[in-house]
Specification:
Blueprint (H helix, E strand, L loop, with lengths): L2 E9 L2 H17 L3 E7 L13 E7 L2 H9 L1 H13 E9 L1
Antiparallel strand pairs: 1-3, 1-4, 2-3
């Protein structure tokens, strides 16, 4: 079953965030992760505040593929950069 990843980032350092996104995008391409969409926060229609300033949705073939991506050594090296660049929330949903 395909898995959708909804990621929300509140950016603290735009330069570091661009670097993180570029590096993560190259890894995602290598690992066959599909970019569904990206967007910047516009406004809240209902509920509390936004989860972040930018959001992205990615598709993995299945939960095992998502877990492989996030646990691979190459992504593990990106975590300190990600955490310096932004506060990120990552949710996985089965499609």
């Amino acid at each position: 079953m395909a898995v959708l990843n909804f990621s929300y980032a509140k950016i603290r350092d735009a330069g570091l965030f661009r670097d993180y996104v570029q590096r993560a995008a190259m890894l995602m391409e290598t690992m066959g992760v599909e970019v569904v969409t990206r967007g910047s926060f516009a406004r809240v229609l209902r509920g509390g505040g936004s989860n972040g300033e930018v959001a992205a949705v990615f598709r993995y073939a299945d939960m095992a593929a998502a877990e492989r991506f996030y646990s691979c050594p190459e992504y593990q090296l990106l975590i300190p950069l990600r955490d310096a660049a932004c506060d990120m929330t990552i949710h996985l949903y089965e499609e």
